[in-house]
Design brief:
Helix 2 runs antiparallel to helix 6, helix 4 packs parallel to helix 7 and helix 6 packs antiparallel against helix 7. This protein has 229 residues and is mainly alpha-helical. The chain has one domain. The chain is built from seven helices and no strands.
Amino acid sequence: MTSGDLHIWQLILHASWVVKFVMLTLLAASVASWMIIFRKRAMLNQAEKNADRFEERFWSGLKLTTLHDEVTHEKGGSQGMGKLFEAGYAEFNRLREQGRASADRMVEGAERAMRIALTRESDRLEQHLSFLATVGSTSPYIGLFGTVWGIMVSFQALANVNQATIAMVAPGISEALIATAMGLFAAIPAVIAYNRFSNQVERIELRLDNFKEEFSSILNRQALAIGED
């Protein structure tokens, strides 16, 4: 450990309890943010891969009934486009088997089921993004609060001193500025990750919405064909 590292640790250990609490809060926020960043990156990348694989299967010419059976029995359950397809096709078949539903009603029921599945999928994709946004927007201010408090305490200590020097206030100001640095350290990765993940989630949601519209058109043609039989 270098003397500079030791000096920083000494400043942290000698900080006031308010500044220490601010630092601990920022440290906890930073650790939580990095955990979310790693998990969210893996989840969104997997969601894009799942979408690519399902689209390839869907447009390969495979029968919808066969694809539905495969999706239904997937290990761990379906996600993403598979979830929308499963929900829409299951509702479409349920209304068709009743024998009393019109073509429009069958399609509307499938679209309603897919909208619900899309909403749930969007909630899953967007989970914890608000935490990253909160950390990114509030951490600098929390760190600034610790800095202001530390500087205030340092200057209050000069009240009983006849002759004030820079050397007397430098340690207190230095330890207070560490809080600002920690606030930026917690905020910058959170902001970058939030912007990147938000853009990635929007792209995935757009793909899901486009698939919903395309699949609705296919079901509409099937429903019209059934009505003509």
